[in-house]
Structures are given as structure tokens and as C-alpha cells.
Amino acid sequence: MGTKAEYPAGRAATAHRWEELAPGVLRRRLPGWDATVGVITGPAGVLLVDTGSSLREGAELRTEVRELVGRPVTHIALTHPHFDHVFGTAAFAGAEVYGPHGIETVLTRDREELRDDATRHGLPREEAAEAADVLVAPQRLVAGEWTVDLGGGREVLLANLGPAHSGHDLVVLVPGTDLSAHGNHSPKGTSGLRQHAPVVFCGDLVEESGVPQAGPDAHPARWPGALDKLLELAGDDALYVPGHGAVVDAAFVRRQRAELAAGLD
Ligand SMILES: [Zn+2]
Asked: N or C: which end of the chain has fewer CB within 10 A?
């Protein structure tokens, strides 16, 4: 990459794992279950999308994000109550935690089920038990839409689009810059605001690495409708970041929607 010499070895290794999707918007695919975590930065805060599959992974992410962006995580958005997306939350003491309305019930009432589900998926039993013991239920519950202001014009939209993949599904949208406003006049490389397309973290409403996983808490009949809302929200030009797999486009999401709808017949 040619940038290696600019960083201490540790930081270069960390940065290597993260994919920059827009200025200050990054994501990493975690090992094990290939769950995606996202980072969105603004002058006033750093928002993390999902927290990993164990406390150990959450703690690793905490250190890594601090290294990567030079500041600690201040906000967390949980996309849905599955172990590989929420088990690391307790590693981020002091962060403001958001989630779709209803997720708090699952994360408090159904701890044992989450622990057992994680164990079935191969997480060591002690790690699953530890994470389930200290599960954090969000203080901030989003029923419709909510905007988190990270300062400097960076506003992040949280939208509750569930139930679909799970009983409670939230997506996180970073709006794109207005391409027409900058036109061709901003001198290349001098503008602080690099133009970028919208980026939307879809949770497991979209999956690229395999067919969308529908567990016992899925609502298959409502899933296509949730994807319609997602497409409407993020638009044709957005980068769609699936819960598992490579970043996709609107056409991919439309195909997945059609497949899900066909599966209902
Ligand atoms: Zn899931």
C-alpha cells in the first residue's frame, strides 16, 4: 500500500483490517462468523455499529478503534439481538447505546437463549456465559427514526425497519454529500469535504456471504417490506453494508428482496 512506513507497526496492522467506505466511515469483517462492525466518526463523537461476538472481541475492538481514529467510542448502535452483533457491548463502559425498540426485552429476558445460541454456533461456553451475564440493553430505543449528531454536520440516521431478520432490526445510514452542491469547482484534494455516496449498515437484513439467515425469531413475511423501506431510505447510489459479507449495491438488495418474496410462495 505504500503507507506502511507512516505508521507504527501496530497501527498499520490495525488499519489494514478496516475498509474505508467514505471519509470517516469504516467497517471491519470480524473473524469467526464474519459479522460486520462499522465505525462512523464526527468531531463530537465516534459511533460503533455492533460490538462483536464476545467480551474479548468487544475489548479488542475498543482498543482497535481508539488506535484507528485516535478517540474512544462514544455511541453504539446495535442492529439486532443476535450474539455475534451484541456480545461485546459491555466492553464499552460510558458509551451511549442505541437499539431498535424491543431489543431491550430480548437482551434482558432471553439471556440464556442467546448464550445457548452462541454456544451452538461454536463460541466457547464460558465466553458465551460471561457475555450473556453482562449483556447491555440499550438506554436509547428507536421506534421509528432517530438522528445522532456527531458534530461538524455529520448526522447519522438510525431507522427501525423490523421485524424482519429478527424481532427487532435497526439500520444505520450515513447520508451522502450533496454531489450537485460541490459541482466540479472544488479544487481536487483541497476540499475538506470529500464527496461520497450514502453508506447504510444493514445489519442482517442483507447478507452477501450466504443466503439470509432466518432463525426462529425471523419474520419472513415482513422481510421484503423491510427491504423496500431500506431501499427507499438509502437510495440507488448507496453502499449497502451487509451484516455478513462484501459491500453490495441497490441492485443486489433488490435481488435479495425478490428471492425472499419468492420464498414466501
Ligand atoms: Zn442476525
From this structure: C
